[in-house]
């Protein structure tokens, strides 16, 4: 009798036999009260495999074939992300071009005008120094001016666009009332500010002349060190009147030479890296020049 009952069970898959049926059957056979045809039939009903047609509409995305198209909602999400990324890139390019244009327009103003605009736009001294440097570059230094304007553009990217456009336009037109409205000050303060600018213009010019002297020295030193000019190199390292870190200077010079000689870098990345290295070297030499004793 037991042999006839157990024989059909061998026809079931091995996995179901071990995982589902075996423990239950063993318990049933060991209990005389449950050892009956009806009980065994009842147990077999629990081992029935799931119908191949049940849940036929269910499909796991994790089991898609390689060539299967992605679900529509995933395709839409990917398309939106691509569109947002493209729009973001285009927006950044427009902002970069606009900031470079601001730098070119600012460089065309006089020193007092530049200082006023930068003060009203809450910009740092670094922007003013960069503008003063590019104003000194001659028309023959086209590549140097292009890189310097790109650098100025990066400094200006955080400015409020409407404010900067309005300040530049009002300065071009000489519109004091517009400048007053932009500054948020009353007329008396704006007029006093304008009078102060005129009164201090000579002071600005004297300050700029002194600053230009340091810029000239730093530029000559920087160019000489980059071009490995022996005379300039000896001149810089033989400075005794000022204490400076000669090891740091050597490191900055080596960094410029390393970037110049690295041909595997993409051109645009090389320009940015080289500009940054030259700027660090120039800033070091400019600080050194300012500490030189006046004759």
UniProtKB/TrEMBL annotation:
Basic and acidic residues bias spans: 83-97
Region: Disordered, residue numbers: 58-97, 186-211
InterPro entries reported for this sequence: DarP, DarP_sf
Compositional bias segments (type: Acidic residues): 192-211
Domain of life: Eukaryota
Protein name: Uncharacterized protein
């Amino acid at each position: 009798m037991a042999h006839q009952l157990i024989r059909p069970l061998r026809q079931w898959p091995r996995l179901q036999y071990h995982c589902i049926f075996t423990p239950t059957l063993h318990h049933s056979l060991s209990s005389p009260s449950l050892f009956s045809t009806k009980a065994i039939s009842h147990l077999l009903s629990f081992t029935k495999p799931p119908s191949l047609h049940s849940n036929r509409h269910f499909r796991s995305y994790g089991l898609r074939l390689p060539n299967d198209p992605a679900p529509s909602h995933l395709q839409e999400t990917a398309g939106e992300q691509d569109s947002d990324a493209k729009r973001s890139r285009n927006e950044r390019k427009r902002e970069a071009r606009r900031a470079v244009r601001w730098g070119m327009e600012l460089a065309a103003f006089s020193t007092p005008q530049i200082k006023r605009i930068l003060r009203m736009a809450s910009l740092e001294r670094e922007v003013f120094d960069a503008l003063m440097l590019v104003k000194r570059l001659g028309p023959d230094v086209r590549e140097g001016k292009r890189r310097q304007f790109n650098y100025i553009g990066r400094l200006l990217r955080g400015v409020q666009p409407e404010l900067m456009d309005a300040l530049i336009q009002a300065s071009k037109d000489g519109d004091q009332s517009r400048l007053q409205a932009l500054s948020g000050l009353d007329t008396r303060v704006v007029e006093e500010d304008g009078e102060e600018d005129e009164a201090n213009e000579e002071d600005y010019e004297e300050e700029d002349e002194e600053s230009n002297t340091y810029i000239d020295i730093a530029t000559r030193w920087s160019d000489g060190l980059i071009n490995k000019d022996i005379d300039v190199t000896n001149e810089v390292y033989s400075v005794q009147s000022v204490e400076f870190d000669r090891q740091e200077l050597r490191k900055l010079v080596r960094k410029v030479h390393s970037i110049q000689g690295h041909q595997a870098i993409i051109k645009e990345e090389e320009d940015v890296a080289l500009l940054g290295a030259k700027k660090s070297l120039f800033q070091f030499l400019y600080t050194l020049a300012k500490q030189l004793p006046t004759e």
